[in-house]
Amino acid sequence: MPKKKTYHHGDLKNALIEAGVDILSQDGVSGLSLRKVALKAGVSHTAPYAHFVDKQALIAAISTEGYRRLYEALAAAVQRYENDPARQLVEGAWAYLQFALHDTDHFKIALSGAVEKEKDYPAFVEMARQNFALLVKIVETCQAAKILKRGPADLTAVSVWSLIHGFVSLILEDQISHTVLDRVSLRQMLIFTLNQITRIELTPEMFPESGWA
Asked: Which pTM does this prediction carry?
């Protein structure tokens, strides 16, 4: 009889998170249970309780991991263009889109609002806060360079996020007409979208492909 897969110390939690992501992406929150996660991860039905007291704790962990990955993508874009505010804005938005396209399940779960009683999960709250703080920093840098209008940076950040997230959601849900998609690249569309809120005209020629995967 084949042996059940075993995990080294520290691997089980990540295996459970990945199993939870797979189940959530296919069956939604209502289809998730710790028993299903254990079965998919190939461990005993009691094993998840070593890391998660209930389903909500697992959802919070999955969402936290999604926000962590998103933060790393955004921070890399900001650091790479730390002396170029306009490029920070464009490449930060591009990194957001690329993360959504290439790590779609984590992206959707992290921003789904599925975590109840958020304050019970400080790691989740902190990771979400770090993401928003980074966006505010980008906004402040762009405001100082007169790329974005002056005003409360946090409120402006909400507006910028709303614009980019709305665009990304349309892409993910395949809601943009192919008459547009066949004529204009996603990068060109993203830059055109950002132009609706910038004080200067951004053009694709100003921001050649960055190499972000």
From this structure: 0.86
pLDDT band at 44, cuts 50/70/90?
confident
With CA atoms as reference, report the closest residue to 167 among 192, 140, 137, 132. 192
> Among all chains, which residue has been given the structure tokens 């962590």?
68
Token match 């943009």: residue? Answer: 176
Domains of the chain by start residue, with CATH = 1-52 (1.10.10.60), 66-206 (1.10.357.10)
CB 137 within 8 A of CB 77: no
Contacts of 193 (CB under 8 A, 6+ apart): 163, 164, 167
Radius of gyration of the chain (CA): 20
Over residues 34-48, mean pLDDT = 88
Q: What is the mean pLDDT of residues 19-27?
A: 86
pLDDT in tens, 90-115: 999 999 999 999 999 889 888 888 88
54 conformational bin, left if phi > 0, alpha if psi -120 to 50, beta if neither: beta
For 31-189, where are the E strands, in sequence order? Answer: none
Rounded to 5 degrees, φ, ψ at 148 are -115, 155
What is the C-alpha separation between 47 and 60, in angstroms, rounded? Answer: 18
d(CA 36, CA 155): 41
